[in-house]
Structure formats: C-alpha cells, structure tokens
Description:
The protein is mainly α. It has 9 helices and 2 strands. It has a single domain (13-193, 205-251), classed as CDP-alcohol phosphotransferase transmembrane (TM) domain (Four Helix Bundle (Hemerythrin (Met), subunit A)), CATH 1.20.120.1760. It has a two-stranded antiparallel sheet with strand order 1-2. Helix 1 (13-34) runs antiparallel to helix 2 and helix 8 (207-217) crosses helix 9. It starts with 12 loop residues before the first helix and ends with a helix.
Amino acid sequence: MDDSRPPRKGIYILPNLITTGALFAGFAAVVTAMDGNFVTAAIAIYIAGALDGMDGRVARMTSTESEFGKQYDSLADMVSFGLAPALVFYSWGARQLQELGWLWGKLGWLVAFFFAVAAAMRLARFNSRSGSADKRYFEGLPSPSAAALVAGLVWLSTVLEASGAFTMIVALVITAGAGGLMVSRFAFYSGKDFNLGGRIPFGYALLIPAIFILISLNPPTVLFLLFLGYALSAPALAAWRWSRRRRRRLARQEASDAEGPESD
C-alpha cells in the first residue's frame, strides 16, 4: 500500500457555514430591497453583521482557522457589507432622488458606488496589513459597522416614512460619510482584546440585558444611533486629542515667551 500520496485537502465546515450564512443574508438584503421590502433588507444586513462577528471567533475557538476561510470571509464581506448596503440604499432612495431632479438621481447612484468602492478598498487594506496591525484598533471604520449605519438609516427612514429633499440630503451625507470613514486613517476600537472567558464585575453583567432591553424598545432608532455614535467616536476622539496637543503646545509657547524677557 502506497502511503506517499499527499493528504486530501478540504475545508472546515462550521466557520465557513457561518460565513455562508452571512453571505446569504447579504444576498437576501439585495433581493428584498429590489422587491421594496426595505425593513427586511435592513434586518438582513444586521443578521449578516452578527454572523460575521461569529465566524472568526468560532474558527479561533475551535482551532479551525485557514487561509481559505480568511479569503472566503473577505469575499462574503464585500457582498454583505459593500454591495448589499449600497444597493439597498440606492433601491430605497432612487425613486425619491429622481423625483427631485435628474442631477439628484445621478448623485444617488454615485454615492452608492462610492460606498461600494470604499468597502472594497477597506477590506483590501485590512487584508494586506492584518499581520502587522494593532489588534486593539481598526484603521478606518469597519465595513460591517458602515453597512449597519446605512441599513439603520434606511430602516429608520422607512418606519418614519421620511421623504423629501432634506431626508435625501441627510441620507447622501451619511452614506458618503460612512464610505469616507472606511478608507480614513482614524483608529476605531475593535474590542478584540475583550476576553469572553474572563471575569467581570457583577454590575457590568447587568449591561448586557440592559442593552437588549434598550434595543427592543425601538430597534431602528437605537441601532441607528448606536452605529452612528461608533462611527463618530474615532473622529471625535482624534479631534479631542488634537485640541489637547494644541493647548499644550500653546501653553509651552506662552511659558517660553514669559521666560524670555526675564532671561534678558
């Protein structure tokens, strides 16, 4: 019996099954948006985000990480968090934008395309720098968070039956801003240093049901505000740090100017 044959290659079932679920949710978001079911489409993107957060952790916990899984996850992310939210946004706002004028219609699909391109560039940068990047922070807004922000915008606007020029301008700004933040250099906290198996104070454990209760009160509003807050957190922190450094620099300059005449 010849044992020199190389071992048969295969893929790990569990993490790739979860990734497939995320890909299916992203595809379902596009299909349901084409049918005009924008609430269902937004929820599908949130489901894709939840599954995307599980596959990597499951692979690490079960020691089933593989290069195939990483590449498959990246391609699924491009569909679920790049193309899906861009197409859901365009399907939701296309008719309303065209009613405002020809230029508005063109601007709508250009913003949707910009979001998709930004997601692709964000994923490519993440893959090329994954080995040397600080695991505690993401460089640029993660594509699942950007997709959740756009999905929350569509969901909330649909529930509130918001329309008109002002709503469309806000939607265009938020979607373009989410795309710009994805390719920015801002550092967003990743949460990867949080140990799920570690101990936490009992009081902190109450935050978990509190978050679920808060979301259940008004899911579209709470989820939109949560992801909007996360998207603005890194720019706000960067602005605060810049302001603090500027104040310190001015204080040192004033101190040196005050010491100058005395030294003479």
